[in-house]
Every structure is written in structure tokens, then in C-alpha cells.
## 1
Amino acid sequence: MNLKFTFLTFTFCFLCFLSVSQAQNVCVELIPSADVLSSEGAMKKMAGDKQKFWDNGQVISVKFIGGSEFVRAKVRQYAQEWSQYAHISLRFVADNANAQIRIAFEQGKGSWSYLGKDALSIASHLPTMNYGWFNEKTNDREFSRTTLHEFGHALGLIHEHSHPAAPIPWNKEKVYAYYAQQGWNREKVDRSVFRRYNHQITQYSEYDRLSIMHYAVPNEHTIGDYEVPWNTVLSETDKRFIAQIYPKPIKPTTPTTPTKPTKPTKPIKPTPPVPPGPQALRPTSLAWGWYGIPFPSVDAATEYSQGRTYLFYKDKYIQWNYDERTILEPMSLKDWNGVPFDRIDAAFYWEVTQKVYLFRGTQYVRYDVATNKTDAGYPKNIQAMWGGSQMFSSVDAAFRWSGNKIYFFKDNQYLRYDMSTNKVDQGYPRTINATNWRKLSFTKIDAVLKWTYPIVYIFSGGQYHRYNIETDRTF
Ligand SMILES: [Zn+2]
């Protein structure tokens, strides 16, 4: 995937901007004019610094220039993902401190970043990275996509479609025509889209069309059947490659020959008691993380077909689409044909049959997505249909984990239900705590929303945690 610069002379600015009408992300490489260089940077340019990568293990200081607390939090959150794989730490410092990476949010000026240590050569009052379209309505996939991409540049990675082995069968005339709409001449398209780096001047791993550093390529820009999707998360190759550039120290292996126990000369102090379970994380407030949500808390939430999700509060609900950037006005629960409830306690989607289960008090209904109405014969009693006395008589929250497993929550307890055996699994109910749900700070849950796999949102009061059901922990 990503290329490593070992030769290209000095500073390139990677400018990626979004044409809103086309929703196409395009990036230009610019040589910054002398007025953005610090005096030291100008000297370095003369000396022809070739190395773009930071030192392995380096702590890179980062600060913001402007931007709301909301967009700052999102950039902090997604930027840190690189550090899971790279032996690099990002330290976010106060606005008035000096920092090596300086992030601005100048709207309409594109999203871009200088490449690796080139940031050190930029005059200290200027940004080294910009996000030109982040705002309070930006969705998480966009935050993830663009932040990971720009921090990839900041760690020294260049565009994947410029990989020496990129096999994209461009339909060049179509691409020229497409970019001409936004005022690009052919030379600029050649440089930004078609250019590939020479084998001799770069180090790289295998080409990876799923790299976060790749443009999306629509099928109609190619000859034959070739396209590249919108990559919004780090690919496996991204993770491997960055770990090669910034390798983490290898943990010392335990000695193979056991040492003989030595007799203690002094009485051993008793070890302090181990605190019960991992320390809980702080939850995020709904008003901040779900900016613009018209509810103070969430009663119930469910995924639905076609990437839609629904959140319920009292007799209202909102629809939230993965790709939606805005939250619409709340709508009335009466829109759900045949649902006889004044509010919803819990809900989940069973995609096998395309049914949504909606719970209220001791009852529930099954809602059919295809016909958009409640199935005949409902409501029914929860315990009568869901495992008898082993099931809770009413529920606070529910969601489908994966496979046939549904989790139900009630007060400070939860249980797992198997849809294939129609039974509550053995060993339940259990207690909701930071051990069973790693680092969760809640002991009672209002709603759980299954997001794009493996992420679920767990709501309680006016707060929520994000939980990764693959790694089985909050994050
Ligand atoms: Zn870029």
C-alpha cells in the first residue's frame, strides 16, 4: 500500500478537497511558497532534507487553531487510531503552547496536511493541517475517513493511487472532463490523479485499494470494471505498513528456565487488594457526541434495513442514516403502523427475517419492514414468548450482538438470548458492570444501538459509551 518517500525533494503539501456537488475527494500536491516556511525551514530546504518520517517512538505534539470542541474531539479520537499500530504518540497540547502539528478548520480551504516531518519547516503561526469541511453536522464516517487520511500524510504516507504498481485502468478523457468541471487543467489532473511514483525513489508495500490513503475511484472513470470504494477505516495493510515504519518495541520474552524460588529474608508485605474489574471510562454526553439530537436521553434504539437507525424518546422518534449529516425533526410514534405503545422501552432488528421487535412494559410487537406494519396477533407477552421465567418480565434495552445472540438489559442485570434455540443462555442473568462490559461506567442501560459492525452505542441518562463488540470493550 503506502509509499515511503526516501528521495523526493523536500516539502510537498498534500491538499485534499471535497467538491460538495460531486462528493468526490481530490487531493493536490503543492510545493509551498517560501512565505510559509520558517527561517529554519528555508535553510533546511536549501540543505535538501530527504527524510519525511518522524523518529520511531516519538511523541508528536499537536494543537488546534480554532474549531469547536465538537470537531476537535472527533479529530482527537480518530487521529489516535494510528497510534494503536505505530510506535508514535500524539500529545494534544493547549492552544497557546507550541506544537509540531497545528490543525486549523478553515472552511472551504480543503482538507490537507504536510507530509511527515515537513511540518517542522512551516512557520509556527501557520497550520500544518486543515479540515475544510468538518462541522457540527459531519457524521462519524466522514470524521474517520478524513482524519485518518490526513494523519496518514502527517506520519509520512502519500496517496495510494500514486503507488508504482497501482493498476487503475483510467479512462483518462473521462477523468479530464470530470475534473475540468472544477477548473482543473489536464496538467493538474496528470499530477494529482494519474501520477505514479517511481520504484527507485520510494519504498512501499503491496498496492492496496482499500488503503485509507486511496482516493475513491468511480467505475465510470475507468475502462472496464474497476472501482475503488470510499475507504473510511484503516485497512489491514495500512496497519501493517505503519507498524513497519514505526515498529513497536518487542516485549521481552519470559525466561524459559524457571528460576528457583528463593526464601524471603523479610516477611512479604501483603499486596493491596485488587480493585474489582477494570477502571470504568468516562462516558460522553449525548448533547456533545450526538450534537443536535433533540432528545435529552434515549429510551430505545434500533438498527433497521438500508443503513437506517431509529432512536426513540417518549412518543417521538428520529431516523439516523449512516450517511446522513443532519438529524431531522422528531416524528410521532404513531407513524409505526399498528404499534399500540405510548413509548418504547427497547427495540432490536432481526435482519434474518427483516423484523423489528419493539418492547413496552410486559409486552412486545413484531414489526415487518417489508410491509411497514405490525404483524397480526401482536402485542404478545414477553415472558410467554421469550423463555418463560428465565426472561425478564420487562426490558430496558436490547440489541443483536452477532449471529443469533440478542442481549436484553433490565435494571442492573442483563441476559443473552439465543434466537436459534429460543432460550436464555446458561449462566444468565449477570450484572452490568465494568468487568462484564469492559470499562463501561453504567450500571443501568436505557438503550443500545447497533451501529456499523463492530460498534454499538450504549445509552444511559444523557450519556453514552461506544462499545466494540469485536474486541469486547468500550473505546
Ligand atoms: Zn490526501
Note: The longest helix spans residues 140-154.
## 2
Amino acid sequence: MPCPVCQSINTGKIGHNTYYCADCLLEYTESGGEIEIFYIDAEGSSLALKDKEAALKLVKSIREDKGLLPEEILEGLIVRS
Ligand SMILES: [Zn+2]
């Protein structure tokens, strides 16, 4: 299925209802029409992003800075459990 964030078809299924986008380097899950998007940080933990807007913002900053996202930006985009 195409990436819900960037619409790329450069995606792969990596698990049950779990997909990976090679263009925005995010993982997302689809279940019953609900899509959740995850950012994988440097330690390999999945961080749930608030919504598609947050995911787009994150991808844009990563592309522009070509590196890891500053903690303070990330903080505003993810759902803290
Ligand atoms: Zn994507």
C-alpha cells in the first residue's frame, strides 16, 4: 500500500499490518482503516507520531537537516505514553 505520508509506493510490508516507507523512513500500521505512523529513533525505539501532519513535518526536517532531529522538535510531534 502507498505511504500515507508521502504517497510513495516505495514501501514494504514488514509485519502483520505493519509497513515501512523507504522514502520517509517511517513505519506505519494499518488496522481497520486506522493508520498509525511511527518514527524509529537512533536507539531503535518506535515513537508514535501524533498524526499525518506531524509525520510530514518530521520527514521534512530530517530531509533538510540530513541528520537526527533535535529533541525539542521531536517532542512536539510524538505521542508520549
Ligand atoms: Zn513515505
Note: The chain has one domain: 11-77.
